[in-house]
Every structure is written in C-alpha cells, then in structure tokens.
Amino acid sequence: MTVIETPMPAREQAVGRSLAVVLGLLTIFGPISMDLYLPVLPALTAELQSTTSVAQLTVTACLLGLAIGQVIAGPLSDRFGRRTPLLIGVSAYALTSALCAVSPSIETLIIARFVQGLAGAVGIVIAQAAGRDVYSGGKLLRYYGRLTVLGGLAAIIGPVVGGQLATVTDWRGVFLFLAAVGIAILVASLVIFHETLPANKRVTGGFSHTLNDFRRLLADRVFVGAVLITGFTYSAIFAYLSGATYILQGMYGLSPQGYSLAFGLNSLGFMVFGFIAGRLSERWSERGTLTAGLIMTAAGALGLLATALLHLPLIAIVLSLFTMVSGVAVTSPPATSLALKDYPDIAGTASSLLGLARFAFGGIAAPLVGIGGANDAVPFGIVASVCAAAAALSLGPVNGRREDRYGAPD
Fold this sequence. Notes:
With 410 residues, the protein is mainly α. It has one domain: MFS general substrate transporter like domains (Growth Hormone, Chain: A). The protein is 78% helix and 0% strand. The longest helix is centred in the middle third of the chain and has 31 residues, at 221-251. The N and C termini lie close together (12 Å).
C-alpha cells in the first residue's frame, strides 16, 4: 500500500520548529530513563548487596510503570487535552528521579523506579498523540520516523553520558542527573508547548466511554497486529537493555566506557535505520517496510542465540545486536502509523495501548535474560529469538484488510 499525501489540515499549518523540538524531546523519557544508568547497574547491584536478577527488576519496574502510566495518561489527554497532563507528569518525573537517588535499599529503588516510570509515561504518550493532532499523511510517517531517530539518539547519548558520569559519580548521581533532565524538559514544555487538542475535539464521557474506545480499537485486527508487533520487537530491545551490560562487561570484559561505546554503535544503527524506515514507508509501502524490519530483527536474534551457544567472539555479538536493534527501528514508524493513523479522535487512547504493549512486554522479557546468571548469554538469545518469532507471526493480522466501523473493508 503506497501512502498518498493528503492535503495539509489547518492544525498542521500551526506547527512551528520549537513545538516540533519539544515533541521530540518528550520521546527521550523512555530511552534516557533506561539507558543512562545501565553502565552503573553492576555497581548498583554490588552496593545494594543484590543479585543480578533482583537488580534487573529496577529495569522491569520502570518498564511496567511506563506501560501502565500510558494507559492512564492516554485517555486522560483525550478528555482534558495534552498540556495539563504533560506538565503534571514531567514534574512528577523530576521528583521521583530524585527519590531514586536517595533510595536506601534495592526494594525501595524498585518501588521508586516504578513511580518514575508512571510519571515518565505521560511524555511518551503525549508525544505520539500530539503528533497525530498536528500531522497527517506522509508528514505523519516522517514524524514517527523522527521520533524513532530521536529515541535512538537518546539511546546513544544515554549510555555514553552514563559511562562518563560513572567516572565522576556513583549511581545516585546518575539519578540526580535524570532529575535535572526532567526539570529542563518541564521548563521547555511550560514555555513552548501549547495545547494541540482543541476543546471541541476532546472526548466526553466517563470511564464507560473509555472502555468503549478500547473495545473499538481491539476490534480492529490491523491495530491489534501493529500493537503486537511493536510489543514483541521492543521486548527484544528491552531484553538487550537489561542483559547486554552484564554480557558485554562481565563476559567480554568491557569497561563501562567500552560498553557505552558498543551500546552507542547499536543505537546509531537504530537511529539511522529508523530515519530510513520513515522515508521508505512513505515512498514504498508501510507493510513492506514492516516485513523488512521483521526479517532483520529475526536475523539478529538468531545470531545472538548462535553466538551464545557457540561462544563466538565479541564481534559476532556486536554485529548480531546491531542487526536486531536496527531491524526493530525499521518496524517502528510503519507499525506506529498503521496503529494510529485511522484514530485521530482517540489518538491518546490508541497511543496508550501501543505504549502498553511496548513497555509491558519489555518488562516481562527483561528479567528473563538473567535467569542463567550474569555469565550465561543463552537465555538472552532465546528470549530475543522467541520475541522475533512472535512478532513475525503477528504480521498476519496487519496484512489483512482493515474494516471500518460499519464492517466494510477499506
């Protein structure tokens, strides 16, 4: 299916560069919350006298918070507008990041990370929903491609900055840095972000209306397929985020700085291929681009499994990670567009389900990679391969024909 550029709506004409920049910044909540402290995760594990699997629950807690928070924030933003929930969420994110920094035990940190995820979820869902408010057609695809690029850029900056911070501070200082990032984004949102959802376009009604919106979305097989693909592919990503720091530093002997550079290389692939996918989806085919991304993801995941089973050298795991991560980036713009483009009236609610799958699936996958301990990469390869296979199977509903509200296929 070739995307046809539609006439630019009135709302789209009001988008300025500053607003586009703020919308992009809002997407860094997830990557920066996860990636910045990954280089110091082993040190955190030792200081709090924890085990690898329990320490990885700090990753899981944040992911689950990001998932649940989006389900709450998305419908609220459809009802009350984008700006007020955004400002509340960013403020809470800065505060809870500071609370993470003063956590006295691993149990307290896990709870604080969950709340941090809840707060950070608001920025993620509103970045997607506000983009749907002001863009359409090919511009919407390019916008989602830019979000993927910025997510990759944040993933590059996060571990590199985290690795450098590790030379001058401990893991508590890293969380204080996250609090400062939250404050900076709050100031930018206060000054620049103006309401993108007019009052006359907001959803009315209570909880029952929200449930009806969810039922409407879940009855659409294309939407469900796109959500499942997003969830399963990002499960592979979050398994990587959770397990790569132990594998690359513990098994292959990389320093925190070396790990941050290897991580940055993979994130660069995510950024570059995400940009290419946005353009390719617009000019070629959303579904074709999605298929290509799934093939890359599966190839990389199988390479990881082979590397773990055969004990291949560092270059093999780096290349496999690069291929898998880049493949996920290719799937992201077309999957997001397929999920959201037909729901401008409930973009926040639709975005929340997309985010729920992305982070909840990832939260389940993340701790599984540590089952074999810090020196066993086989569970990582198995989790990544299973996730890639499940995503490929979910392509079936996406390739079906979408039915409109009256039951007629499009």
